[in-house]
Amino acid sequence: MRSVAFSPDQQTLASTSVDKTIRLWNVKTGELLKTMKGHTARVKSVVYSPDGKWIATAASDQTIRVWDTQTGEELAKLEGHTGDIEALALSQDGRSLASSSNDTTVRLWDMTLTKSVHTLRGHTSEVDSVGFSPDGKVVASGSKDKSIKLWDARTGNLLRKLTGHTGRVESLTFSPDGKVLATGGGGGDTSIRLWDVTEE
Prior knowledge:
The chain is mostly beta strands. The protein is built from no helices and 19 strands. It has strands spanning 3-6, 12-16, 21-26, 32-37, 43-48, 54-59, 63-68, 74-79, 85-90, 96-101, 106-110, 115-120, 127-132, 138-143, 147-152, 158-163, 169-174, 180-185, 192-196.
């Protein structure tokens, strides 16, 4: 299992795998509800929509796919990255999706139109992690280049670069109030760092 995500009502769990499938499970009984097939390489990340009606998945086949959770039908296929897609993040309102890739970019997608609206360039190596601030105004990305970048989610402009990790930045998350960003290192960097993103 590469990635798992609960449905908003916590009744269903979505899982992704190297076998190229996405599976939906009944949390209470453990019953397999659906198996979704369409990706042509290992599936690395999954996120649930706020209403639980769809999920988005990303894979090493350089695509993001959107699935109907009731029927298992593929609703959309998003293309644009030129490398493995490492991570996905969805804004709390479900309207914006961020994807990070080993092509060194982050892409922002309008999920009402299912199209790419910004390509964020600036990292010099693969981007392992991505996340939205709670208010959806800022996107954070962490990279093998040891840096974290903060981007304006509306314009795609770079707001700030955070440095301090001695290895790749494999994970990140905003605090519920959006004032603190936590990042986890990898590649020999075993630290967790907390950043006050309200200050320079």
